[in-house]
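User: I want to check something. If I give you two sequences, will you return the structure for each one separately, not as a complex?

Assistant: Yes, each is folded on its own. Here is the first sequence with its structure:
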Amino acid sequence: MALISRVGKRLRRIIQRPGSVELTRYEALLPAVEKLEPELEKLENAELTERAGKLRDAIGGAASFTDSQLIEICALGREAARRELGERAFDMQLLGTMGLLTGHVVQMETGEGKTLAGALAAAGYALRGRRVHVVTVNDYLARRDAEWMGPVYDLLGVTVGWVEPAHSKEERKEAYGKEVTYGAVAEIGFDVLRDRLVTHPDDLVQKAPEVAIVDEADSVLVDEARVPLVMAGSIDHNDADEEVAKIVRRLRLGLHYETDSEGRNAWLTSAGASVVEKSLGGVDLYDESGSDRLAAVNVALHAHALLTRDVDYLVRDGKVQLINAARGRVAELQRWPDGLQAAVEAKEQVTATDRGEILDSITVQALLARYPEVAGMTGTAVAVAEQLREFYKLEVAVIPPNTPNVREDQPDRVFASPSQKLRAIEEEIRTVHETGRPILVGTQDVAESEELAEKLAKVDLPCVVLNARNDAEEAAIIAEAGKKGAVTVSTQMAGRGTDIRLGGSDGASREEVAELGGLHVIGTARYPSSRLDGQLRGRSGRQGDPGSAIFFASLNDDLVLSNAPDLPDGIDADTETGEITDPAAHRQLNHAQRVAEGVDLEIHRNTWRYTRLIERQRAELLEHRDKVLHTGLAAEELEQAQPEKFAELKEKLDDSDRLEQVCREVRLFHLDQLWSDHLAYLTDVRESIHLRALARETPLDEFHRAAIPEFHKIIAESASRAAKTLEEAEITDNGLDLAEVGVRRANTTWTYLVHDNPFDSDFEQTVKKVRSMMRMKKS
């Protein structure tokens, strides 16, 4: 059997279905599910709920599901959905449910009913006695799906809730107390961080993690895996160096500074360094005395040269707001590391935001790794099957569409220049629009979407624009994108969460639009990931609808210039249109995309190599913190270390519970402060670690050598500091004045996500930059 399994996996890779799970087992169960339908249809609602309760009693606490239990869950779920939603789950949806219940990532195309499949799986896990978190990509989907699927859960006797930013601590507690809780990945992660700072057990809002079902799994588990979620405490105002920002604003590319082809690094030339040093009053940037100014110059230069307004960020309501490149929408609560955030704010001359001391952080990957059982669903999983296996030990189950996909995916059209490509896109929109077919145009960023909209308006082709500026209206815009004659220009469609129905939201002209050929999708360029291309294409051809998709590209697109700029000889373009039909151009385009995907994967791997050690240290520290939080350990330690002072404190505090809480707060304050200091130390180590490569040392090994000894001091040091606090404290009738003895937590705390660290570049890029600086200094 093991040999057959290995051969099967090998064959799936050969036919380019890496990691795809064999569905034969699940397909064999579908007739049994259907056979139960007449029996369940006769039951009253109360009887159906009672039957689900009997299933709960039978499987509660089991480690996994038997085939008969999968059949019963699917049959009960199908009947509940038919009664409460008016939807009878398709066989393919039930295959998806079974794939989720057996711990896989299921690939289901757009419009195939992932939301219902996920809800039935969540109910199944709940009936097995597991707490389930359905992890979404945004707060809107969390609330929508919880409310939409609520009646199904109710009929099955399963409780459901959701968390969103506006919820109070009590509302969060109530939501997490349900058997199934929906929440955006960031919101769930922030609650984890908040729970790690509580000083009394009653303040915890979450319970131990058990099952996560991840919607848009490839986006969450791969694209956002390395994004750190941060809990910060206010310390002071984040003042950027305004003088440096003004100086850098005058520098010119090619004369004063250079950038690498990937757009990840910028560095001063000798001429640029001379200008900056003179403008700063004659300092030597590369002398030890000028090191602080050099750091400020480098950050300001990065903000000036490598980050573009309306591409990487917006300026709205007097604030710099980052754009999530994978989704084309504002990345709420997201910011760059503090120095760069301040530099961009100085560049745009907006009010600087507060700077905070990082109290704790966790990457999305580490957040999901906390769950003993993880499953997921998405429309594009096969392309990242190897990563899902490597980082999460998850396999992909590809669910066939309920109705065969008849969408026509047309060959890419490649042009020599972006301007020639744009003219061809305008002509394509005009030609298709004249037929009455609805058109969805997917652009790369906000700036491009608005530029295209302006050009279309000038030639009497009005359109609706969906981008980060108006993402609040996204559901309404997408819902009408299938109307006859509609032209919708949008940034990335991943995670939008609303299907495009032919004929618009009411479907009034569905048949007419279908006869015309359905939705026509146009991509204005290939994305850095083939999955994003697939997600855009997948908006057309929903549930067997007719449709088509085509991508336009240029050999001077950013994707090619950044990843495969060396073009093969002999590629000729049409002299009038600039179109290139040579297959070599298509190969170059595909090569550039593969390079981009490879670079992204290596960054993911590199980030995880560093964060794995931090996560192990955090887990060890949290185990100790939980012991302090839930037991009288702190009081025991302080009594042993300071018996006289402890006895005096005990005499003043007549409540023994109150005594333990005071001791707990002192001990946890120092433990948390030392962990915050440790994180700051690791950040400093990480930012300078690659310089050690010049001495032929391995950066990761050096990081471990620096991080491990420092971590092992934390627990003992926190106990020692707590004892010293008690020793120096004045004990009054009310016990200890904690603030008086320095046990003072941040007055305000906030949460945010850190955008991919732009300084965390590949080793080779770092060495190149350092060597350039050294050469410049010698000259």
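And separately, the second sequence with its own structure:
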Amino acid sequence: MSPETLDPDPRSDGAALELLVHGVGGATPQKVLDDPRTVRITGDETAAVYRRADDVDAEAHPERYQGRPVPEAYCWSNLTSGNGSRALWLLLLPFMVVNLAHWMRPATKGLGRSQRLYGVLVRLVALTLTVLLTAAACEVALDLTAWQCAGSARCVADRSWLGFLSPERHGWWSQPGRRLALAAVVPTALVVLLWYLSNRTWSAYEAQRPPTDEPPAGTSHAGKPEATHEAPGTEGAADEGRAASDDPVTVRPALGRPGFWYGRRLVARLRAAHTAAGFLTIAAALTAAATDHDRSTDGGPLGLLGLLLQATLAGCAAVVLWVVCSRGRSERKRDGSLDQLLISALPATALGALAVAVVYAAWSRPGWVSTGGLPGNLSFLVLALAQIALIVVLVVTAHVLHRRAPHPRIAMRGLGGPAVAMLACALGGVMTGGVAQRVADWLDGDATPGAGEGAIVGPPVLLSWQASVIPVLLVLLLIPVAVLGFRTLRAARRLAPLVEREYGKETPDPLRTRQVAGARARAALTDYAPRLVGVVSGASLLLGAGAVAGSWLSGQVPGVAAEGTDSFVESVADTAQSIGSWLVGLGFLLFVTWGRRAYRDASARRTIGILWDVGTFWPRAAHPFAPPCYAERAVPDLTWRIVSWTGRTGGRLVLSGHSQGSVLAAAAVWQLRTATRHRVALLTYGSPLERLYGRWFPAYFGAEQLGQLSKEVHCWRNLWRSTDPIGGPVRVPEDGDRPEVDRGPLKDPLAYSRTVLHPLPEPILGHSDYQADPVFAEERAALLDRLPPAAVPAQRTEKEAQGQRAQGSSGRSSA
């Protein structure tokens, strides 16, 4: 609904602005502003503020806008779903998921050491995922291709491009060590690519400074110091080992700290550590194979060099662990310093160790022959054991934190973080196992990789066991899915008479009733997500432990290990192994296909962008190779715009956020100074602030934080529908003279059947088009009425107006 539909209100005098922030999936400024002619006011092609062409000089003519706000749109969709290269972020999905686990820490009181331990554990799980990805690249390039296939005359005969590596030709590259050294280029290039992507996005996203220094942070509107202490036991204070001040001052929430959206230092440190870990993983694979041969043949000086190199790699690995564990996020101030020596020396040292390992492996060893799997290749088993142990300790830590301050609305009783971390490990296992299985199947021709005498090439046994548990996991998943489907049908039948009574229909339409009741029942499925995540993550943990035990005890793939047992067990093992191998390969192909389609198709790229809109809201606190946090650009953008406009005009501002835009709006309000917050009204609709963020991220959007936000902003109203699967109430009750924040559920559809005002059937809107409801305009007008009048006359000189028009004309859109 256009802002012009509002009736002028003589009480709402002075300058007023409505800053609209769209939700996930992206939106054009023309759509947000409901006008084909829009002008870019400030910003760039990635994220910018737009106005209608007729409103560019609104501040110079306040008489045109008596009783109604000037609409302005902040469009940020290109931060997540812009050019085709961002489709490659889909391959970083496990990194993004484990980064979410960091922010799912349960809300608690005190227990600073436990909070620090929680952050350290998640960062260690993230480190294992980087090593896992690098190990998968080593498995494909070093083990399957250079060691197994290139060392087999039958495998090379079908692939001429490997001919120069064949031992049959007795060329320079025919020795196994030299083949491994050449193949190490592939995983090394992968690590360099990850470093490059992280460094480039770090410069673009984490470099955005929040407006806490102009004017200086902690300065109130009157020039007096404003207290901005951290809450005791919060992540920012806990990771630094500092205690909060005991002064009786208002404690700022986590998202209101000056350094929350400025994580350059931590991301730089983690990027250096993870890059070094990748190089060290490749060097360890080369060194382990070469030293295994030298020990078996009494290599003399080469054997001693191998031991020294292994000790060096172990020392570098210890430094990497120290960097990952020693420092978390510092949020009490905007920390602009960088550990230049560390972020430069650590990756360079690891790369130097890798270069030495390449030379060591390529040294001439005439009698060396490659047979079986790559020697010393225990990385997958060690990583699986480490991940299981870390997840178990993380579960215990999260339980201790939640028990200190329990709340019934918190997802999974505070175990959401460990569950999501487990899902990240499972995703990483599927992706890496899928790559290894598909490459092995391609190299092995008609034979089943790793099974039978006809197999030439086979991945590690553990990967086959992990693939075999996937069919079991899917069967177990069918049970909760069936239960949810049955509950949804039953809920729709129960809601049908309520829908008819709500619309007051004596002669109801059964089809229409089923449509509305079904939409409400399906929207309620979102609230069952914690149970589904709990089932999947718990089953993944148990089945993963079983796969590790089976591969360790048997040393063979499931089909071979089950030979000689009961015929039913043997057939189940063979079936699970075959289907599992096919499923992990299919999963990897789906990732590649979807990414390729998203690179070429803008609509598919927007679909992937929706995933990132939800998953990359949070800063990269656990994994530096995760897709970048768009909020580190969007929140400073919004904050700067609010501060600059209210400071220049002294006018009233309604911050209007839909869906994910409401989360950005709330984060921006928390970053404002007290004087500015009291000139801002917050209007949210279709908002996941409590339903999603409050339940899964209780330390940042819990009931206490949302209640404090309601007190800090001048006024707040939240609109929601029972047919909305994403948005919901924020559950902030009435407090003194402050009314209840929520208004809803709104009617959806607006009319049950055809009427004079609605001659055609009204659609069920669900999560979209909240502006189409008359309640939206009503609540926006009420918020403007509650804001104080303009503090400064909204007047500008003609020169300023001309400058504004000139700036806007450069961004004019032809629609």
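Because they were folded independently, the notes below concern the second chain alone. The chain has a mean pLDDT of 83. The CA atoms of residues 562 and 569 lie 7 Å apart.
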